Amino acid sequence: MAKYDIYGIGAALVDTEIEVSDDDLAAMAIEKGLMTLVDESRQTELLNRLKGHLIHSKRACGGSACNSIVAASIFGASSYYACKVACDDDGDFYLSDLKKAGVYSDFERDKAQGTTGKCLVMITPDAERTMNTFLGVSETLSVDDINEEAIANSEWVYIEGYLVTADSGRQAAIKTRDLAEKHGVKTAISLSDPGMVQFFKAGLQQMIGNGVDLLFCNKDEAMGWAEADNIEDAIVAIKNIAKTFAITLGAEGAVVFDGEQLIDIDPVATKAVDTNGAGDMFAGAFLYGISSGMSFQQAGALASKASAQVVAAYGPRLSIEAHTALLSASSVCG
C-alpha cells in the first residue's frame, strides 16, 4: 500500500489578497483574469499603490498545487508536497503551515538563499481573481528538488501547470512524470491558467508527454488548448492527451470523463465573492475522492460542493470543520 495518496509539485507562494476595481486594473495596466509573472520591484510597486485595499484573510502557504494538496490532506489524504522556499521569514512560515495542514515535505533540507515567492491576488467586484506573481526562489525549482522515494511510494503525482514558465520547473515536471511512470504511479496535471495555454502550450505538451492519467482544467483552458470555440471540440482534444479528465464550467458545474463515459457534475448555487482557489479546491477534493474509493461521479460532486464554498468567501481555503461537514454530507467518506 502506498505511503502517500498524492505527491504534488509546484510553486511555494505566500498570497496577499486585495480588493480592486476594474478601473484599478486598467490604471495599473494589469490584464484581468490571468496570472502574470512580475519581478519583485513591480510587485512592490503594486502593493504600495494598493495600500488600504487589503483583505484581512488568514495568511497561509499558497501556490496552486499547494492549495490542492492542502485541501486533499485536510479531507484525509496522505500527501507530500515538493517545493522550494528561501531562508527567510516567509519560508519558515510556509513550511510550518504545510506541516500544520498535515502535508509531508522535505522539512530538514537546507532552504535556499533568496526570497520566498509571493502572489498578489486582486479580486474585482465580479469575484474574478487576477494574479501578479513574483516567483522568488520557486523560479529555480528543479530536478534536484524531487524526492524519487516519495514518488515511488505514492498512488498519484499531481503536477502544477504553472511550472511551465521556468525552464528548470518544466524539467522538474517532466522528470516527476517520468519517475511516476517508471514506478507505476498514476499521473495528474493541471493546465492552471488560460495564459499558460496561450503562451506556453508547447512547454505544457512536453510536461504531458505521451499523455497523463488525469487532467484538470477549466472551460477557457480547454477551449484554448483545442483552439476551439465550443466545449464539445475541446473535450475531443483533451481526450487525446489524458485518459481521464475534469473540466470545470463555473456556474454550470463541471464535466468529468472516467475513461468510458462523460459525466455531468451539477453546479452548487452560491454567491461568489472570490474565485481564487476554486479550481485548486476542485482538484484537491477530486483527488482525495478518487484516491479514497469514490467514483468519478461522487468525487466530482464533492469537488463541486467544496469549490462552491471556497468562492463564497475570501481566500483559497476552507476550515477543517467545513471539510468535515462536506464529507459527512457525501455518500462515501473514504
Blueprint (SSEs and pairs):
Blueprint: E1 4-9, E2 13-19, H1 22-27, E3 35-37, H2 40-49, E4 61-62, H3 64-75, E5 79-82, H4 89-100, E6 116-123, E7 129-136, H5 148-152, E8 154-159, H6 167-182, E9 186-190, H7 194-208, E10 212-218, H8 219-226, H9 231-239, E11 242-248, E12 254-257, E13 262-265, H10 278-291, H11 296-311, H12 320-328
Parallel strand pairs: 1-5, 1-8, 2-6, 3-7, 8-9, 9-10, 10-11
Antiparallel strand pairs: 2-4, 6-7, 11-12, 12-13
Quick gist of this model?
By secondary structure, the protein is an alpha/beta fold.
Name of the CATH architecture = 3-Layer(aba) Sandwich
Shape: globular
CATH superfamily: Ribokinase
Strand order of the largest sheet: 5-1-8-9-10-11-12-13
> Ranges with pLDDT <50 over ≥5 residues?
none
Order of helices and strands: EEHEHEHEHEEHEHEHEHHEEEHHH
Radius of gyration: 18 Å
| β-strand amount | 15-25%
The computed structural class is alpha/beta
Largest sheet: 8 strands, mixed
